[in-house]
Amino acid sequence: MLAGGLLLATAACGGGSDSGSDDGKGKGEAGSGKVDNKPSQAVVSIAPKDGAKSVDTMDALKVSASEGKLSEVVVKDAKGRAIPGKITDGGARWTPSTHLAASTEYTVRAVAKDSEGREKAEESSFTTLTPQATFTGTFTPEDGSKVGVGMPFSVRFDRGITDPDAVEKAISIKTEPAVEVEGHWFGNDRLDFRPEEYWKEGTKVTVDLNLDGVEGRDGVYGEQKKTVSFTIGRNQVSVVDVKTKKMKITQDGKVIKTIPVTTGKPGYDTWNGQMVITEKFVQTRMNGDTVGYDGEYDIDDVPHAMRLTQSGTFIHGNYWGGDAFGNYNASHGCVGLRDVKGAWDKKAPAAWFFNHSMIGDVVVVKNSNDQTVAPDNGLNGWNMSWEEWKK
């Protein structure tokens, strides 16, 4: 009231002799502007209510205005991190663009203006629920790694997901240079991401796993919030021709080496299709019992082995194959290259290929009598068309 009185006094003194008539005009005025002490007619509503506990992370946060329009909504957690959102419906409501984290306190400040421009502000705070059951995802490739052009980003969840849209929405992928990347579900526990064609050499990929608070299935919430970055290395694709029994290694589409190979013998044919190297072992044990070939082989020191499928297909060194390389197919489905026992000879064809390969490189097998490898047998989604992948 004191401030209003000073304003009225100043207006009366400033009028001079021109305001001599006492007709009531000019009362409540300060120069040409009017003083309006009426409260805003806008009504701001925030849900959940102030002080609420165990709030759902997915759909509980809502802000709306009546008799006015929202002009500003700020939602922050205890660390000052803002939750993005949008004002929609002509200012009638605000909704978050993402879910909330679990076990987190949030504050909300919302401002609305009525038809006269008068502001009304409301504030609220609440705490989200603490999950009784959670899920996590194991992912590949590793953060900070450099991988070949065929490497997808793959997440395997430890619980079956019944709300795949919510989970997929919580995983964002940015690339430099920009390229469209889409996700594809294999069953309810694996989600892979890839572009339409192989990655371009030098592409930088950043993945935000914002799974904390996502309800992947009834009562089961994600607990991960992590950023993963990896870089695409040189473009190497190797093509194995089962008929010619040769493999051509290409970089940027140019053949840099041709190596004689042996592939699956009749009845044990090698899969056709595009296969991605997922593991590398200087030496490893291969036992037929683990892949349904009981008692047929057990070799404890297979040299320079690289996994192509989850079902047991490798491209590896072979020191027991005699003159098979380039001449006849003798394996149980793997692609074999000449090597030495103990993996000591760096000049052996298998050693050369091993040392010039990285996780994520592509090995293509063609002209085999077997079928095309299943897209989910290893990281081999390249065997699906782009249209199938996006379904």
Automatic annotation (TrEMBL):
Annotated active site: H316, C334
Pathway it works in: Cell wall biogenesis; peptidoglycan biosynthesis
Record keywords, A-Z: Acyltransferase, Cell shape, Cell wall biogenesis/degradation, Peptidoglycan synthesis, Transferase
SUPFAM superfamilies, per database record: L,D-transpeptidase catalytic domain-like
Statement: the UniProt record of this protein carries the keyword Acyltransferase: yes
InterPro entries: Big_10 (IPR041280), LD-transpeptidase (IPR050979), LD_TPept_cat_dom (IPR005490), Transpep_catalytic_dom (IPR038063)
The UniProt record lists the keyword Cell wall biogenesis/degradation: yes
Start and end residues of each stretch annotated as Disordered: 13-42
Pfam families referenced in this protein's UniProt entry, alphabetically: Big_10, YkuD
Signal peptide: none
Domain of life: Bacteria
UniProt domain L,D-TPase catalytic: residue ranges: 236-366
Protein name: Ig-like domain-containing protein
Protein species of origin: Streptomyces fuscus
Organism lineage string: Bacteria, Bacillati, Actinomycetota, Actinomycetes, Kitasatosporales
